[in-house]
Amino acid sequence: MERHTPDAGFEEVVDATLHDQRGWMRAGFRFVRADDESAPYRIVLGEAAEVQELCRPYDVFGKYSCQNGPVVALNAPRWRQATPEWTGDLATYRQMLVNHEVGHLLGMHHPKMQCPRAGRPAEVMAQQSTELRGCLPNPWPLPDEVARAARHDQPLAPPFSR
Ligand SMILES: [Zn+2]
Which residue, 31, 98, 40, is CA-closest to 70? Predict the structure, then answer.
């Protein structure tokens, strides 16, 4: 009998999200999976303490995910449950988390306004885990975000974002 843990399928979700036609590939990025040490970037699902460690010297207060140089560290408790503020379903939350933190890896920043127009989809780089402010939950980069990322004018893997 196969035993399913809450984290089963993590790699598949990351893979599917990064290779989705609605994702960052639209900005001209190509994602290649390598399950060995040769991979220049890592996406890790970790318990709160492990994520805290991977995000050092920055504090993620045991609850945030982060991108710290070449490492994207996703907070497992949130991966399993999303947040109370999230109004979408869990599968969508996971796609959002991957695209948001990988967006930081690609040099993307949080928007100046969290939700410029209520009732419209949030930017994937908005801090949707914390508050939607009337925007709709959205796991995919909006056209403007794709256009910004497509300029490739930001260094990859900046020091730290969450
Ligand atoms: Zn962020």
Answer: 40
How far is the centre of ligand 1, averaged over its atoms, from the C-alpha of 47 (Å)?
18
pTM over 0.70: yes
- Residue in this structure with the two tokens 């939607």, named with its chain if needed: 132
Domain for residue 3, yes or no?
no
Q: How many Å lie between the centroid of ligand 1 and the Cα of residue 143?
A: 18
Query: Rounded to the nearest whole angstrom, what is the distance from the C-alpha of residue 41 to the centroid of ligand 1?
Result: 17
Could you tell me the distance, in angstroms and rounded to a whole number, from the CA of residue 32 to the centre of ligand 1? 23
Residue 11 has pLDDT above 70, yes or no: yes
Number of domains in the chain: 1
> Quick check: helix, strand or coil at residue 99?
helix
Cα-to-centroid distance, 114 and ligand 1 (Å): 11
**In the sheet where 42-46 sits, what is the strand order?**
42-46, 71-75, 66-68
Q: Does a structural domain hold residue 104?
A: yes
- Quick: pLDDT tens for 139-157: 999 999 999 999 999 999 9
Domain enclosing residue 19, as ranges: 10-32+40-150
